[in-house]
């Protein structure tokens, strides 16, 4: 063989060795990516279940006292009375009952709850607007505005509470107090799940 043939043979052999090394490295990289993909596929059903659980655990409601064109008042009464909010803005999950005025907690978690009350002097009534937010009959927040010196009053309470599935949340109008509403929706009761704990 000639010198040129020797160099051609040597460089061809060297070139093939380089190609073979690159091929082995590529095969190792492909194998690594296949293993990662298989690992990700194994976690996919868990992620899908988590998404399904989080979607099914959504809970939110927002209601107002009434949706009447003219101002109407509820109360005052001689005893504390349950307020039944009839106008529904949203009732995601259907856990607020418009017949009873009670929100039954569907999933354990931390909930945000808000009540706003409003009253206006009508028909010689003295102004006393007051209510409380209750969980299972226990008072967790009180809103009251009883100045008696002005023509209208309002108050709001916002709380975040850990609640258990089945807990019952309601708003009660206190004895001697009144609330007034129309289509402006001054009196509202709102709650939503911040995050689930079960």
UniProtKB/TrEMBL annotation:
C1q domain residues: 54-198
Top-level taxon of the source organism: Eukaryota
Entries under PROSITE patterns matching the protein: C1Q
Keyword terms, alphabetized: Secreted, Signal
Xref: SUPFAM superfamilies: TNF-like
Assigned GO CC terms: extracellular region; synapse
Gene3D superfamilies attached to this UniProt entry: 2.60.120.40
PANTHER family, per database record: CEREBELLIN 20-RELATED (PTHR22923:SF103), CEREBELLIN-RELATED (PTHR22923)
A family per Pfam: C1q
Lineage: Eukaryota, Metazoa, Chordata, Craniata, Vertebrata
Biological process annotations from GO: maintenance of synapse structure
Cellular localisation: Secreted
Protein name: C1q domain-containing protein
Endpoints of the signal sequence: 1-21
Location (main, coarse): secreted
Keyword Secreted included in the entry's annotation: yes
Keyword Secreted: yes
């Amino acid at each position: 063989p000639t010198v040129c043939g020797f160099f051609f043979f040597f460089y061809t052999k060297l070139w093939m060795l380089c190609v073979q090394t690159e091929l082995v490295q590529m095969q190792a990289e492909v194998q690594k990516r296949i293993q990662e993909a298989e690992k990700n596929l194994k976690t996919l059903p868990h992620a899908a279940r988590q998404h399904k659980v989080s979607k099914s655990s959504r809970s939110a409601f927002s209601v107002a006292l009434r949706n009447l064109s003219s101002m109407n008042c509820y109360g005052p009464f001689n005893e504390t009375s349950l307020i039944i909010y009839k106008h529904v803005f949203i009732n995601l999950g259907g856990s607020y009952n418009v017949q009873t005025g009670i929100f039954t907690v569907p999933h354990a978690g931390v909930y945000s709850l808000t009540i706003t009350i409003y009253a206006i002097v009508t028909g010689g009534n003295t102004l006393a607007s007051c209510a409380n937010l209750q969980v299972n009959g226990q008072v967790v927040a009180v809103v009251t505005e009883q100045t008696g010196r002005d023509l209208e009053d309002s108050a709001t309470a916002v709380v975040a509470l850990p609640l258990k599935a089945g807990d019952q949340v309601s708003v009660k109008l206190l004895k001697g107090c009144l609330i007034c509403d129309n289509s402006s929706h001054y009196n509202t009761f709102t709650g939503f799940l911040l995050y689930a704990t079960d």
